[in-house]
Amino acid sequence: MVADVHPAAQIPARERLIFALDVPDLAAAKRLVTRLADSVAFYKIGLELATSPHYFELLDWLLAQDKKVFTDLKLYDIPATVSAAVRQISKSGASFLTVHGDRAITEAAGQAKGERLRILVVTVLTSVTPSDLTEMGIGL
Question: Sign (positive/negative) of CA torsion 126, 130, 131, 133?
């Protein structure tokens, strides 16, 4: 599968910074967004907020504030389930979504994403060390 690559020159400068809303709840996220005001146009909502009851409320609120949203969920399941989840996220108005996994998962996500949503594939988490890879049977 060929990645859909966009040169940095095509990305407006205002959208090159993505602020991570790595906070525990909706109120904390809204306080940050309000404080940052027009200085940030793009926000990442990660797994911590995804486990809160207000994930999609926050996503909708950000879009209503004319912000872009990166849903960093690192979806990893069987391809059919990832595909179904990607179809759901694609209806939300998010700009990016992360998936984690092999070629089958990547292809399932790519086929389900619709025209607007971009899929980012996480191959190895940043917390994984070379010794972790060795323990998993992956040679460097």
Answer: positive
d(CA 40, CA 1): 32
Predicted confidence (pLDDT) at residue 3 exceeds the cutoff of 70: no
Q: Map tokens 């910074």 to a residue.
A: 17
Q: What is the DSSP string of 64-123?
A: HTT-EEEEEEEE-S-HHHHHHHHHHHHTTT-SEEEEES-HHHHHHHHHHSTTT-EEEEE-
User: pLDDT of 24-37, one tens digit each?
Assistant: 999 999 999 999 99
Instruction: Look at residue 8 in the predicted model and tell me its pLDDT.
Output: 55
Catalytic machinery residues: 74
Cβ 33 vs Cβ 62: under 8 Å: yes
The CATH H-level (homologous superfamily) assignment of domain 13-135 is Aldolase class I (3.20.20.70)
